[in-house]
Amino acid sequence: xxxxxxxxxxxxxxxxxxxxxxxxxxxxxxxxxxxxxxxxxxxxxxxxxxxxxxxxxxxxxxxxxxxxxxxxxxxxxxxxxxxxxxxxxxxxxxxxxxxxxxxxxxxxxxxxxxxxxxxxxxxxxxxxxxxxxxxxxxxxxxxxxxxxxxxxxxxxxxxxxxxxxxxxxxxxxxxxxxxxxxxxxxxxxxxxxxxxxxxxxxxxxxxxxxxxxxxxxxxxxxx
Length: 223
Fold this sequence. Notes:
This protein has a two-stranded antiparallel sheet. α2 (43-55) crosses α3. Mean pLDDT is 87; it is low at 208-223. It has helices at residues 14-38, 43-55, 58-83, 91-108, 114-143, 147-166, 202-206, 213-216; strands at 7-8, 221-222. 13% of the residues are buried. It is built from eight helices and two strands. The chain folds into two domains: 12-56; 68-222, no CATH class. By secondary structure, the protein is mainly alpha-helical. The longest helix is centred in the middle third of the chain and has 30 residues, at 114-143.
């Protein structure tokens, strides 16, 4: 009978911390090449457009940073959950819960002062995402329900809730598209680079010295 156990792994050496992400990207590119070649596609051209679309111009690079910022923060949040032995596969749903709350506050709360408005958005968005994670946490601690299954399934529940809101109370008036009204200017981060969407909230995500980033790198375990 096969038995699985959790064994704490010692911290990786510095060279491994650099090599592992590079190797992960390389393996991904190799695996992605298989369906491209099977379909008869041009592999070099496919990868050219892949990298050009993300990094090939000023606009592309800045937009990549904008899109990557919430994913980086979500990844850090998942790392802390893993360190606590809570196998949180529901980060996508928790991100959407926080985004819905932030959008509602950005639209409906006429605070008027940017600092207070951004503080409210960050605080209530944080709480909303955390409350969405509390449900599977309670199910695990009280009823021993598997947290991998519940957190994964809660992603789809939140996805449909978001769709219902964007076709209902949060839908832009006189629009048939699932989009919300524009949030107030005081609820937006200051833009750092002209003629772009590169804003103040991106800087902490890209900083290697963001609190906890070094600790979270040691949080993985092996079976």
